[in-house]
Write a structure and sequence with these properties.
Blueprint: E1 8-14, H1 18-26, H2 31-34, E2 38-44, E3 53-60, E4 63-75, E5 79-84, E6 89-98, E7 101-110, H3 117-126, H4 130-154
Antiparallel strand pairs: 1-7, 2-3, 3-4, 4-5, 5-6, 6-7
Length: 156
């Protein structure tokens, strides 16, 4: 039986209030500006919120792959989470006020702690293997959070 896969998680302190950080995180249409793996996204509906669906195109070097997702939680200034069907994973951003700033945690948690067959196949074919991609995902989270921090702090 496959071993449970622990969640991937990265956090950063941002010198901006939760309201400012939320403006950036909640605008998922801009995620390709922050995430090194997000290439393109098409959201369905005028507003982004709980229940919003999207079709996404991710990239790693010359390899592109599609995903579909659903925003499952949208709590202003607190939490945004979305489920990615191909990977059977929930990605989330949690915001916690910390003095005059905000701690943001990005997390990826696999459904039932297991990789889907499609995710394993995708990792094997296009992303350099599971172990390599996991390292890249964590580095990508850190890059995403650093870019969100730079954006939030440049406009406070």
């Amino acid at each position: 039986m496959p071993e449970r896969v622990p969640p991937l998680e990265a956090s950063i302190h941002i010198d901006a209030p939760p309201a400012r950080v939320w403006q950036i995180v909640a605008d998922q249409r801009r995620m390709n500006e922050f995430s090194p793996e997000t290439y393109r996204q098409k959201f369905f509906g005028d507003e982004i919120g709980s229940g919003t669906r999207s079709i996404n195109l991710n990239k790693r070097k010359g390899y592109l792959w599609p995903t579909a997702s659903l925003i499952t939680e949208f709590v202003p200034e607190k939490r945004l989470a979305f489920y990615v069907y191909l990977a059977a994973a929930t990605w989330s951003y949690d915001l916690v006020a910390d003095g005059t700033g905000t701690v943001v945690t990005e997390r990826r948690e696999l459904k039932n702690g297991k990789r889907s067959i499609l995710a394993r196949l995708n990792a094997t074919i296009g992303t350099g293997g599971i172990a390599v991609h996991e390292v890249e995902l964590l580095a990508g989270m850190e890059t995403t959070l650093a870019r969100i921090k730079a954006e939030a702090e440049s406009t406070t």
